[in-house]
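Exercise 3.2. Students should predict the tertiary structure of the chain below and write it as structure tokens, then compare their answer with the key that follows.

Predict this chain's 3D structure.
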Amino acid sequence: MRFFDAHCDTIGKVWERGADFGGRDRGITPGNASDDQPGNVPGGQPRYHPGGDDLHVTLPGLRAAGARAQVFASWAWTERYRDREFEVAMNEVKAVRRLCEQYSDDLVLALTGDDISAACEANEPNARIAVIPSLEGSDALCGKVDNLAVFRNAGVRLVTIAWHDSPFCGSTYGSGTGLTDLGIELVEACEDAGILVDLSHSSDQTFFDVCRVATRPFIASHSNCRELCPSPRNLTDEMIREIAERGGAVGITLAPGFLSADYYRKTKSIYDEFWRAIEERSASSDEAGRRSSAAEALIPRPPLDLIVEHIRHAIKVGGEDVVALGGDLDGVDALPQDFAGVEDYPRVVELLMAAGFQPERIEKVCYRNLARVFRETVG
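Answer key:
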């Protein structure tokens, strides 16, 4: 089976910590992590990354999975990179491009919807994997819509408009406010530039504000069904229908707190404390992240087969053309049981087949739906 995943945070670990994307070692390449790595805080202490220095996404893993396209997100949250947001995000986008150059036999920078479709439909078993740079959160734009063009010229073809609150919009764990006038300009600029709008992390108000102003399909790259797991990061049935009616897609994610209602309840206090520490400035984002990671490690991981229920529910609500995959790999501290990294995506296919899903429907979930959305929106 071919795979197209809508969201991973791998490039942050590669750029900041020298994580070994091309080899079979999931961690830091010996000699790569030093005091002058961009991801070290003063004194040489490593930056916190979800999952530590291990990589969920590697080139051998992508090959083993049968991946045909992967979105690589650049994340430059103001709280962590204040006054360097543009610089950090651009360096991460450049790092994505360097991977495509370094592994040119395996990866290709995809700048158009046709590039992505060609990679997804190629019949050669070793066809190059389409790589799509994205921005996670609009912090990198520094409150200026004009900066979007700079990132587009660098290869960005998807923007997750929220991660936390910004001058453009409110977020799930922020104020809960909606699009600002500047945010409306951003959505319009994305559509004009052929950049796909992504509403994962957006507040409910931002989501429905985008529904009022958007004229093209949009996606939620890594969100699940709120009906099955009450995390506010998940989508209500109404949201799923809105995305479906506009021809967009929902990337079902592997994040345990969005898959399992029980896991969400057990970890909610951990992440409430994370955000409280940030708001009260009682800990840096790195310190708060390390604490939450250590606490979450004590919680038993949920079974992988919960992903089938989210896929089934999203199809029931929005139809088989709305469901896709967006694992949030390298952006989470834990993964479900029996899933260690991108190479384990075939396990999802096995579960879908065992649940009675037909091959044509599985293909839509695994890659066809996302390829269609990008083809229709990305210039």
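Discussion points: Strands lie at 3-8, 67-75, 107-109, 129-136, 158-160, 196-198, 219-220, 249-252, 323-325. Residues 261-280 form the longest helix (20 residues).
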